[in-house]
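User: I've been trying to design a sequence by hand for this structure and keep getting stuck. Would you show me what you'd pick, starting by listing the structure so we're on the same page?

Assistant: Good idea, let's start from the same input. This is the structure you sent:
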């Protein structure tokens, strides 16, 4: 990082964390400096009932409502997708999304002549509400890749399925983030699409799951989170995490 150095909390030589709005911090990141972006923007509020019926705790609902207000109901994947083009060595992105935004990601990839795929996290334990729709038992991840971006092919065959089968809520219970992602899934993406010492960016860091995976895999990590409470949780979580090797 350059001008923004004093706002970056370096935990060590491998991890730099920013408290702030990624749309303000991304422009400060040097050209072609990032090997991979693995992120989970707050897309939930796009749907009519973003918060998941009456099953989410009030404090978590409040957090998502705050996010909704700060985005003004208009998270626009195109702005985000274009803003990261300049900073990546080769376009190499994994982004969680809901079904409503899938087309926007695919249109972007097609119009830039990037390869893309849709990966799915299948959850065998969905909340049993039917209410005129199928169970909410999966999450989509769009993978967008420019020719030449890393794609390691030497891992165990099981890592290359386009679906990942794991119960929801498998995260570390002490982060208290309402949408914490499954560490095994994040680890798989980072193993396949980056190498040791590569720089991985998560501009919507939340509780820091991508940072924990990077620590396990010896990737350098830059995390950005705008909510101070989650920033502190992520910082503590990554700092206290003891790297686990040979996970797969
Ligand atoms: C869906 S959560 C990410 C959860 C994360 N994957 C985890 O496992 O904990 C999205 C996060 O992005 C943060 N956020 C929203 N808008 C942001 C922005 N403009 N810049 C940085 N962070 C933002 C929210 O506060 C929220 O914690």
């Amino acid at each position: 990082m350059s001008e923004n150095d004093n706002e970056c909390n370096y935990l060590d030589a491998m991890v730099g964390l920013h408290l702030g709005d990624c749309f303000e911090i991304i422009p400060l990141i040097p050209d072609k400096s990032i090997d991979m972006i693995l992120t989970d923007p707050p897309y939930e509020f796009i749907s009519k009932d973003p918060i998941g019926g009456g099953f989410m705790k009030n404090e978590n609902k409040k957090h998502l409502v705050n996010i909704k207000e700060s985005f003004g109901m208009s998270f626009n994947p195109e702005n985000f997708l274009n803003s990261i083009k300049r900073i990546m060595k080769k376009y190499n992105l994994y982004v969680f999304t809901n079904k409503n935004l899938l087309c926007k990601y695919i249109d972007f990839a097609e119009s830039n002549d990037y390869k893309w795929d849709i990966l799915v996290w299948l959850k065998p334990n969905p909340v049993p509400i039917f209410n005129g729709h199928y169970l909410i038992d999966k999450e989509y991840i769009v993978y967008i890749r420019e020719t030449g971006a890393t794609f390691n092919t030497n891992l165990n065959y099981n890592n290359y399925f386009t679906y990942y089968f794991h119960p929801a809520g498998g995260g570390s219970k002490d982060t208290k983030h309402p949408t914490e992602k499954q560490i095994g899934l994040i680890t798989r993406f980072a193993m396949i699409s980056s190498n040791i010492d590569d720089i991985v960016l998560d501009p919507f860091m939340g509780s820091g799951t991508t940072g924990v995976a990077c620590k396990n895999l010896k990737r350098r990590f830059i995390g950005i989170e705008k909510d101070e409470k989650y920033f502190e949780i992520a910082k503590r979580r990554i700092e206290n995490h003891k790297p686990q090797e040979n996970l797969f």
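That's my pick for every position. To get oriented when you compare it with your attempt: The domain at 3-240 is CATH 3.40.50.150 (Rossmann fold). The chain has seven helices and nine strands.
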